[in-house]
């Protein structure tokens, strides 16, 4: 699955912005250096406000005013370099599932019919067959995130960027979606950069967990997860898993206190 | 010794009969209130407690209405008011919606035209009418322009609000898929604006009707507004009331028509292609 190629390289990424209210220059990300090999599943965990969402936005090209360098390896196909699975409620409420999922292709000028045909396999892959003509409000939260995932996969990206995609789901749906994501990841064969603030979610999903500091964000630790795959949800109760979770928690918990200090 | 457990009974919901009765009860009271005032009005007038010319009375209004409808007096007035309304309001929509979209999308354009929009909004249109008459004379154009001025502000401002109503995340999605500016307009800005455009149009229907009356009061020898002011000058209050009622009915019908349109378009959004 993994070749020697790198999917993503970030070098000295630093990001600051001007607070609209106070006119202060705020440093959101101090420094991030990162290399992700092709096909790897990488999770970033950190306290809220640490800049992890900011970092994926930078990778996704939504925040162009950063310092440092980001290289995304282009695959020699017609695929896009990266696509984003947004947090929640990011489906267009005025389009059906089919039109939402084929949106990325339509943006690239693919005619409607062809785009719909190319979207169908991904709708099936995420388990939404039969719901093509439904509107987002007719779907549960979990199903909406399936559609969100399909929308990103349809443009066949090299890297899948996921910004806390399950944060708004209830605990049970979230667990189910984690297992589903691993199944889909296995089939779709993508590099994934997954942002979360949940330690167990990060360990369960990823090959590698990056722990971020409180703002201004930087990477505190790069922890490999060598739990065997395929992983079942049961694995969360093994001693190996809990040991990893404890280790990460010990890195993050001192960061949480720092948050009470005004930035 | 009594048992420790006291029997407790819930209140079964009387939902069905209760809700079924309510609308009809509401109707009864509504009709009662409406008819009651009419009867009281008729009685006060017949007992000659107030002068006939001031108050008129429901039966006199009905007979005046029947007379002017059968001898054909009222129809040209309705036709001319309708023409002014349709053309003036149509122009307000045709200019206001694109203008609102443009202002909403381009900050600098907003700053550029904002003083003028505010000025038009703040100035009572009645005050501008003499100026419009100087430029356009007394004719259909003047009245259409007054209707247009009355209606355009709400249409424009509401449409502009619609542009800003699109959640930032939708713009992020479009951006992340590298949507072109035109695609983003069609897939994010326009769909998000639709409900606001419809609301603006509905508010505009009322404003446009005000415009019709103002224009016909000040610069016309035709139309429902003229019919009202002309008969007012002759102290024919029955016909004044008839004209007022015509406007009221027109207002309600147009407002309801817009509401139906709104509901019809609630689910509608422009296609992606």
Your description of this structure?
The complex is a heterodimer of chains A (263) and B (273). With 263 residues, chain A is an alpha/beta fold. Chain A is built from eight helices and nine strands. Chain A has helices at residues 52-60, 97-101, 103-107, 112-125, 141-154, 171-188, 199-205, 239-258, and strands spanning 6-18, 25-37, 41-45, 67-72, 82-85, 159-163, 191-196, 208-212, 217-224. In chain A, strands 4-1-2-9-8-3-7-6-5 form a nine-stranded mixed sheet, with helices on both faces. Chain A is globular and about 50 Å long. In chain A, 42% of the residues are buried. Chain B is flat, with a radius of gyration of 26 Å. In chain B, α6 (125-136) crosses α7 (140-165), α7 (140-165) runs antiparallel to α9 (181-218) and α8 packs across α9 (181-218). With 273 residues, chain B is mainly α.
Unreliable stretches of chain A (pLDDT < 50, length at least 5) are none
Give the end-to-end Cα distance of chain A, rounded to a whole number of Å.
43 Å
Number of helices of chain A: 8
Residue-averaged pLDDT of chain A: 89
Main sheet attributes: strand count, strand direction, barrel closure of chain A: 9 strands, mixed
Oligomerization category of the chains in this entry: heterodimer
Based on DSSP secondary structure assignment, what is the total number of beta strands of chain A? 9
List the helices and strands and how they pair.
The complex is a heterodimer of chains A (263) and B (273).
Chain A: E1 6-18, E2 25-37, E3 41-45, H1 52-60, E4 67-72, E5 82-85, H2 97-101, H3 103-107, H4 112-125, H5 141-154, E6 159-163, H6 171-188, E7 191-196, H7 199-205, E8 208-212, E9 217-224, H8 239-258
Parallel strand pairs in A: 2-9, 3-7, 3-8, 5-6, 6-7
Antiparallel strand pairs in A: 1-2, 1-4, 8-9
Helix pairs in contact in A: 4-5, 5-6, 7-8
Chain B: H1 15-46, H2 52-55, H3 58-70, H4 74-105, H5 107-122, H6 125-136, H7 140-165, H8 168-176, H9 181-218, H10 224-233, H11 237-265
Helix pairs in contact in B: 3-11, 4-5, 4-7, 4-9, 4-10, 6-7, 6-9, 7-9, 8-9, 9-10, 9-11, 10-11
């Amino acid at each position: 699955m993994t070749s020697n190629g790198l999917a993503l390289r970030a070098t000295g990424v630093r990001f600051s912005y001007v607070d609209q209210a106070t006119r202060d220059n705020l440093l959101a990300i101090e420094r991030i250096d990162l290399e992700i090999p092709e096909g790897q599943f990488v999770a970033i965990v950190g306290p809220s406000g640490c800049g992890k969402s900011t970092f994926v936005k930078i990778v996704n090209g939504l925040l162009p005013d950063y310092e440092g360098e980001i290289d995304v390896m282009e695959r020699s196909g017609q695929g896009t370099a990266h696509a984003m699975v947004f947090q929640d409620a990011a489906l267009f409420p005025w389009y059906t599932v089919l039109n939402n999922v084929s949106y990325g292709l339509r943006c690239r000028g693919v005619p409607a019919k062809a785009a719909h045909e190319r979207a169908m396999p991904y709708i099936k892959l995420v388990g939404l067959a039969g719901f093509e003509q439904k509107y987002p409000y007719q779907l549960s939260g979990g199903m909406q995130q399936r559609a969100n995932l399909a929308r990103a996969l349809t443009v066949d990206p090299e890297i899948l960027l996921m910004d806390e995609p399950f944060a708004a789901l209830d605990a049970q749906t979230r667990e189910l979606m984690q297992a589903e994501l691993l199944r889909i990841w296995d089939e779709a064969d993508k590099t994934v950069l997954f942002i979360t603030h949940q330690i167990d979610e990060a360990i369960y999903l990823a090959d590698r967990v990056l722990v971020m500091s409180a703002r201004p964000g930087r990477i505190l630790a790069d922890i490999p997860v060598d739990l065997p795959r395929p992983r079942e949800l049961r694995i969360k109760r093994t001693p190996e898993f809990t040991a990893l979770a404890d280790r990460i928690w010990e890195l993050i918990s001192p960061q949480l206190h720092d948050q009470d200090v005004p930035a | 010794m009594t048992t420790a457990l006291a029997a407790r009974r819930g209140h079964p919901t009387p939902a069905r009969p209760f809700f079924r009765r309510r609308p009809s009860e509401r109707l009864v009271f509504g009709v009662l209130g409406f008819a009651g005032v009419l009867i009281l009005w008729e009685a006060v007038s017949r007992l000659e407690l107030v002068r006939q010319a001031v108050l008129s009375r429901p039966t006199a209004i009905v007979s005046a209405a029947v007379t002017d409808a059968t001898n054909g007096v009222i129809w040209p007035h309705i036709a001319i008011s309708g023409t002014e309304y349709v053309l003036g309001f149509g122009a307000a929509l045709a200019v206001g919606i694109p203008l609102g979209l443009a202002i909403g999308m381009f900050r600098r354009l907003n700053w550029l035209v904002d003083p003028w929009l505010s000025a038009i909004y703040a100035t009572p249109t009645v005050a501008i009418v003499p100026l419009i008459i100087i430029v356009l004379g007394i004719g259909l154009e003047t009245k259409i322009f007054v209707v247009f001025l009355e209606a355009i502000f709400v249409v424009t401002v509401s449409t502009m609000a619609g542009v800003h109503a699109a959640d930032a995340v939708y713009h992020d999605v479009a951006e992340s898929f590298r949507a072109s500016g035109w695609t983003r307009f069609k897939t994010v800005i326009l769909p998000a604006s639709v409900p606001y455009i419809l609301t603006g149009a509905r508010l505009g229907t009322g404003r446009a009707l005000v415009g019709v009356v103002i224009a016909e009061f000040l610069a016309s020898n035709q139309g429902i507004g003229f019919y009202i002011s002309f008969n007012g000058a002759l102290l024919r209050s029955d016909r004044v009331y008839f004209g007022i009622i015509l406007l009221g009915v027109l207002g309600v019908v147009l407002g309801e028509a817009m509401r139906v349109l709104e509901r019809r378009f609630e689910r509608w959004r422009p296609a992606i292609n």
